[in-house]
Amino acid sequence: MQPLISAARRTSGLSQSEVARRAGTSRPTLSSYEHGHRSPTLETLIRLLAANGQQLEAIPMLTFTEHHDSRGKPFFVPDHLPRLSLRDAFATVVLPTHVDWSASSAPRALADPQQRLLAYQVVLAEGGPDEISAYVDGALLIDAWPEIFLPKDIRRAWQPIIDRALV
Fold first, then answer.
1. Numbers of helices and strands, H then E, in the chain
2. Does 56 fall in a domain?
């Protein structure tokens, strides 16, 4: 809980005193929440986030299913499309070597549509749940879907997820 509360305050740029005042609590109490010495109730957490101009949102967790292509190579498909923060969706990243072995250590600028397309191709074909969750944004994947080159087994397995997102 403490990383969420302190991250919210850092993002807002407000002092502990100002957040405490806006949330109707004391600065020492806020400090104890931020340092993990106490845990706020859900109502208090919502109030603290609101004091920082933020809100609590329930986001469905991704569940992945392992599939195998015609040669028996595993690949993974989530139950729904992942969403990334804007910062992560457009970051410059270095994909792990076990995923992007042909261009290991080459940075990929996800803000560049062509580089993002190539990164998504590699991650969907070679990555596991951690890599898909970290590098693939569902909305940007939908945008790239008509142009993305994937082996037919992978495309066929992902197509229902894409179709469901568009309904």
1. 9, 4
2. no
In degrees, rounded to 5, the angle at the alpha carbon of residue 69 between the alpha carbons of residues 147 and 152 is 25
DSSP letter at 19? H
Considering only CA atoms, which of 93, 128, 96 is closest in space to residue 110?
Answer: 93
Contact 148, 113 (CB under 8 A): no
Q: Is residue 59 part of a domain?
A: no
Q: Are strands 92-94 and 107-109 parallel, antiparallel or unpaired?
A: antiparallel
* 51-83 tens-digit pLDDT: 999 999 998 999 999 999 999 999 999 999 999
- The answer to whether residues 111 and 143 belong to one domain is yes
* pLDDT tens per residue, range 27-59: 999 999 999 999 999 999 999 999 999 999 998
Can you read off the two tokens belonging to residue 155? 């495309």
Predicted TM-score of the model (pTM): 0.81
Arithmetic mean of pLDDT over the chain: 95
CB 83 within 8 A of CB 74: no
What is the span of the domain harbouring residue 36? 2-51
Residues 6+ apart with CB under 8 A from 50: 22, 23
